[in-house]
Design brief:
Layout lengths: L1 E5 L2 E4 L7 E3 L15 E3 L2 E3 L3 E3 L8 H9 L3 E5 L3 H4 L3 H10 L5 H8 L6 H12 L6 E4 L1 H14 L3 E5 L17 H8 L3 E6 L2 H8 L5 E4 L9 H4 L6 H19 L5 E4 L5 H9 L4 E4 L1 H4 L9 E3 L13 E3 L6 H6 L11 H12 L4 H4 L4 E3 L9 H6 L8
Parallel strand pairs: 6-7, 6-13, 7-8, 8-9, 9-10, 10-11, 11-12, 12-13
Antiparallel strand pairs: 1-2, 3-16, 4-5, 14-15
Helix pairs in contact: 1-5, 5-6, 8-10, 11-14
């Protein structure tokens, strides 16, 4: 629905996680009987959780640990893991710098150029654990980094930018032909990020194996504040999922939609799936893992941008292991642990046997869903009363 925000100027109403709720179904399903698997290309994963390609979240050890559990952690090839032989030294500088100097420190650290020999080494380090390996880079580097990663054994390649389209006009940069890149890589290629139906459909038509949805919702991202761009995740996911469904009806090929960013707890994950996502990519909940390289800190991918940083360093703390965050037992009261259990429980209450059925769950607009009856929690800053 659109509204006039001024003379001859319309604006569309959109929705985020805090403004909607899911309606229980008319049957119940045992959570243990639900199927939460999903595919990227021909690779099947036991659960629809991806860890964001962010330096405070994923290194090779984290990727090996998470991928063994049945999810997928994506390593950032533009980050410190390919710039430094020992990335832990860079992490120490980041976590120990004064709050007012973080941008300066980030820009200094990320001036170190990427060393292509480290791309193959990091892929090989992940593959030593006999797990799928996914790596990521920006479109400008994909043509160079993609073949190196594939040759080293990468199973999935992610091309990720703040906003990606198949048409990019520039007088200075060589543009990436996504369709050609997908064809030449011969391994599944996931691209992102986008938030609109038209762009989603054009990207899916190139032959990609997955699509990342979300611009600016991440806990460490400041894109929405710096350049004013973004669409709340529920609406963005619904629109891009509609493009996926149209493509599927037209071609018979199903391309998974992955909601990327903005989720803090199990409820947000469940709302993403119900909005049409096949999987979710999250950063800050995994940055809290004891195995995460950031030591309780988390920072955005565009934080070190030389001219216009769009991210910051946030302290998230260390609350548990990857296994506790995914499977429990939960030791906190805010829904940020046992995310798999939350998803299965929600599916059971909605009467859904699998992800595809959950995408059809009834959603209502519910602006009071976070506050109704929660006065004591908010007053005492516990449970649902905690600030994100």
């Amino acid at each position: 629905m659109s509204y006039f925000i001024g003379r001859n100027r319309e604006a569309r109403q959109t929705y985020g996680f805090d403004e909607v709720a899911l309606v229980p179904g008319n049957i119940g399903v045992d959570p243990d009987d639900t199927d939460i698997s999903f595919n990227i290309g021909d690779i099947q994963f036991k659960m629809p959780f991806l860890a964001s390609a962010m330096d405070g979240v994923v290194n090779t050890r984290f990727a090996a640990a998470m991928n063994k559990l049945g999810g997928l952690a994506v390593l950032n090839l533009d980050g410190i893991n390919t710039r430094y032989e020992n990335p832990e030294e860079a992490v120490e500088m980041i976590v120990n710098c004064e709050p007012g100097k973080t941008t300066e420190v980030f820009q200094k650290i990320y001036k170190e150029p990427v060393k292509t020999k480290l791309i193959a080494r990091r892929v090989e380090e992940i593959k030593k654990s006999k797990v799928p390996c996914a790596v990521s880079c920006i479109p400008q580097n994909a043509g160079e980094f993609g073949p190196i990663a594939k040759e080293a054994g990468a199973d999935i390649f992610v091309v990720q930018a703040t906003v990606i389209t198949i048409k990019f006009e520039s007088t200075r940069q060589k543009t990436l032909d996504i369709a050609k890149f997908v064809k030449e890589m011969k391994i599944p290629v996931v691209v992102g990020n986008c938030v609109t139906y038209r762009v989603a459909l054009e990207l899916i038509d190139t032959g990609v194996s997955g699509l990342l949805v979300g611009v600016g919702p991440g806990a460490a991202c400041t894109t929405r504040g710096v350049i004013g761009i973004g669409v709340p995740q529920v609406t963005a996911t619904v629109d891009c999922a509609a493009a996926r469904d149209f493509h599927y009806k037209k071609t018979g090929k199903y391309v998974p939609i992955i909601t990327d960013g903005g989720m803090h707890n199990g409820g947000d994950v469940c709302k993403s799936i119900a909005s049409g996502a096949d999987a979710v990519m999250i950063g800050s909940p995994f940055a809290k893992a004891s195995e995460a390289p950031g030591k309780g800190y988390h920072w955005g991918m565009a934080t070190p941008h030389a001219n216009l940083p769009r991210g910051t360093r946030v302290h998230v703390g260390v609350t548990g292991s990857i296994e506790e965050i995914l499977f429990g037992p939960a030791r906190v009261d805010d829904g940020s642990q046992n995310l798999v259990g939350a998803l299965r429980t929600s599916m059971g209450a909605l009467g859904c046997h699998n992800i595809r059925e959950m995408q059809l769950a009834q959603i209502i607009i519910a602006p009071s869903i976070k506050s109704e009856g929660k006065l004591l929690q908010r007053a005492q800053t516990v449970g649902m009363g905690k600030t994100k």
